[in-house]
Request: fold
Amino acid sequence: MQNNTKKKIAPVVITILFLLYIGPIVAFLLMAATWIDGGFTPFILLYAAGGGAVIAGIITALSQRLKEIDGGEEEDAKKY
Reply:
């Protein structure tokens, strides 16, 4: 169990750092969409939605990685 915990630290830390980097950018884009009057609002919202999709993908990848670590698939691959 201790070995699995050590393997989980890196993916979780990287995900947190990524969210700390992308989260404020998406938040700023959403705030900017309310500040700007004109034709640029749909484009800003499109970029914000893209950032949200990337965040969702990273969280999904983290979930899958943690399941792989728990399942021991990494150790199975070392046999070959």
The two ends are 23 Å apart (CA to CA). The mean pLDDT is 87.
